[in-house]
Amino acid sequence: MRRVLKLHDTVTDEWQRLGEETTGADALIVPLAELRAQPDTWRARTGRLGAQLAPADAVEDLVELLPALTLVDVLFPGPGEGRGFSQGRLLRQRFQFEGELRASGAAVKQDKLFLLARCGFDAFALAPGESYEQARRALRSYSVAYQRGDDNIRVRYRSNGPS
Fold it and tell me: Which of 93, 17, 8 is nearest to 54 (CA)?
């Protein structure tokens, strides 16, 4: 059973990834390359559909599919990989994506959650070994940010979570 930090709660991850045992899956995450290869097939699918963006994927390649998506999962495979921050910000600000924006991968650790939230991420599949309780607290570590960000996300974290 996988877990996800979504806003201020740790919840069971109800999404499955393409290639996993997906029998009867209502919520399925599909890599962008697969979505682009067969867009009509995926648009016609019943159930919730999510896209997975790898660091080298261009957000612009996902735009035409955004209305059909409930979730976008942005991969952070390693500590030196920061393109996902820009991908998240583009999805929220330029392309007005209002669904779940999830950060996942080995580099999703509690020290980056506040910055990810400032870029518009509202769900986090933490790296193995990370504490979900400590991650929840990390989201409320700072009350001031020097740069502009997605303040709506930050306000939701501060107002919904316990102090």
Answer: 17
